[in-house]
């Protein structure tokens, strides 16, 4: 008997018809199904409430119904409790949510029979300091983005790796991404693809003023530090840190940001037959 | 006897020592020197006030003391009165302000003797409509930028050229630049250099989601129309139009933006010995 | 009664079944059909031989059966006799051969009824000099490529535009392309798309050693000159000029290459309903 | 007493004046100096011949006088005998030859006193098979490049990583580089910088036909396999493999190339005060 936590992007399954079908099937297989209380309340979904995250320790695995965004959104909570994730894709092709909508039953059967592997994905931890005091901390599976606020065209920042000065950049911003995040915003900003089974960090400046600025790939043990001490113009003061595209934190020139590999890891349930390069070819087209 | 309008970036000549030296010399050559009234008031600068832009019709040429930014800032006003511009560069090497700080006297002598040519530069006109009503209009020498506001990661927009549909883009934004503007923000966003004596328009998407999106170079007669009708997400609603980096106008999905060659032109005084490729090599380095 | 010249890529219609169908239909419409003598001999194709290019003056229009490559290959000959081209596409989607295989009849009817427009496309002329003596001349619709021969990794060359020095480049080579050629090799080398109705020239370095080297877009009146006088290494001596991908000419460091707009133009028959951006979207994908 | 092997790029020190100064100093410090026999013969250089590579086992460290190219050229031989390298730069700034010409004495003193660290650099091994038979093998510190021969514009190849199909590419070629090689040809072809202390592999297509083709960064344990089985055109048959820019091997469509981390490593003598990012800033410029 398994304890299964269903995380549902209700905008992609608004009537919960699809989710209920899966829940009923899981119950018929003697699983206990857990759900976020706000979903159960709104939808009269007949499952056990997760009222407090401490209950997550009971969970055997999570089914995420939505897409890559929904997985990204839940990644930290699930990583903290070491819960493996099976992503079911209700929208566009995803890198993380490998199971397509219609394939759910055959794949869930394999999961219940233990016919799967766990692929771990590296995460990043970002810490924001002001005058040496930690004011904010966050974890991410994709990326940390430092960018300008509207109206201020350029951000000036200095990058240090393991306390060695790398360079000063004038740019729209910079992306610090994991291998998982390398195929997201990093790719739009001209960064390279990092094969997802690796532990690496990629730094990609966004629209850098200097034409020689390039993506730099670091080892997963490198510690990145970003400061704004040389900013020359007052309007460079409007900066923002965004962690996995979800939390925008305004900062100013006093801030110092430390980004490094997190202790947490995301665990993806991988069922035979899916692979990264196959998805990459379909996503990017090619030939 | 010439009427000379001095436009001074007071942050680059805070004591006006340099500006006064030029003014005194001009007066010694029987020139009448005009200045913006706010400068004269603050600094007791002994020149004739420009109180109303209609007085600009009297001006023979303008000296802009500052850099490319100061020229860009004044470009529309000077273009409307067909005033040629001599830019003196008080900071970094400029593409427009070709005269270096110490070269002022020899070059001004040439200008007073008529030993110069006028190089015209194409400008753009941007019109913003909401529900078919013109709500804003602007002119620029560099570029029109449509971008996201903070927090909204992507903008979705459709581009039409002469009413033919070009493509739908998801991106951080798009730059519509003149040849003059091609070496500014456009270059950071991976756009090509347009030789400045040409009349052309370049459209460069900023961090496009699709990896196949590229800069497109249009003829100067092409009319670009940008709409946001297919935006799918509410947070795509936070859009901004920036004209020559100076006027940020918030718009929303109802807006329609028309960009085309302006009737106005910027007139740059060009003295023998300066040329674009020489500056380009120094700016970009190379080999 | 029209004189129609059929140019057939026999590797794409090896049995000539398709070509014969079109020929028979043309004859039924009182057209005289001309063909290259080598095709007629090999295939017993019942059409009039073109034995000498002077006969091309009789031709009203050419039908090119193949693809963009076949049109490129015939472009110079047809341009010299001002013959409009209708391209029928027997392979992948083309930018020039707009008619799809199955659409031939309805489009040919329109052509015979005069329901079409002629779109002219700018061509380039390349001249290769050694010690001031013209040793080779060529015309192209797409591009002139100067590149290394195998084994020599870098080419060093200086570019002049209208006798102004632009820059010295170390690179794998350089592409000088028309708007038509901008979507060919130029695009792979990171160059911009030039809207095809324009007259412009784009220069794109191939894998330049300097990271600041960028595509430069010139006016169609600019004259490009390329020299190799500063080449430092003997193995830089193995250079090649390729004109429309078809004629490879070995040159060495003494050579000087002049590239400018040709007097010749390619004339494409354009039937309503086809347009460049539509093809671009299908070729590049997008969104 | 140390055994020191001097490797001299005689084109950069043609009179050997500089080399002799270093040799004399080394002898005054009781070092035994070894040299390649062809150098000693030509220049009457008073040092011990290396007549056979087995003698390299006696060597404590090598001084390479030249530049990065000279180090690359010697890398395999020195790696096989685990000889640390001190590179003295006689030309342009180098990434590997960190010691500038005038700094030789102070740095050699530190080396003799043992005040240095050894930085190891990952190397690659390339194997070329035809019909399953190994026909060529090579080692490199920078990169393996598969490219077209002259005249054949595109190469078509399939990439597999650990026997998983990655993609089919049409391109001018592909670069498989180490972190050391990431700042060489890879950078010109738009690839990312890999911090040199890492063990990673980067694959960068050269002028790919598909605009979605991007650099992919792999772990150092990944095995890359390249085949040409889907090449459609006869002229795609002219292929070349180049290993560290030095050995060009012609291959054809039957070939299969395996590239993986070599067992060999290059050992660089690193003296305090030099670091990669400092050189990168000077090489690339920036701001």
From TrEMBL, chains A, B, C, D:
Cofactor(s), names only, from the UniProt record: a divalent metal cation
Catalytic activity: NAD(+) + ATP = ADP + NADP(+) + H(+)
Keyword Cytoplasm carried by entry: yes
Enzyme Commission number(s): 2.7.1.23
This protein's UniProt keywords: ATP-binding, Cytoplasm, Kinase, NAD, NADP, Nucleotide-binding, Transferase
Family (UniProt): Belongs to the NAD kinase family.
Function, in words: Involved in the regulation of the intracellular balance of NAD and NADP, and is a key enzyme in the biosynthesis of NADP. Catalyzes specifically the phosphorylation on 2'-hydroxyl of the adenosine moiety of NAD to yield NADP.
Protein name in UniProt: NAD kinase
The organism of origin for this protein: Petrocella atlantisensis
Originating gene: nadK
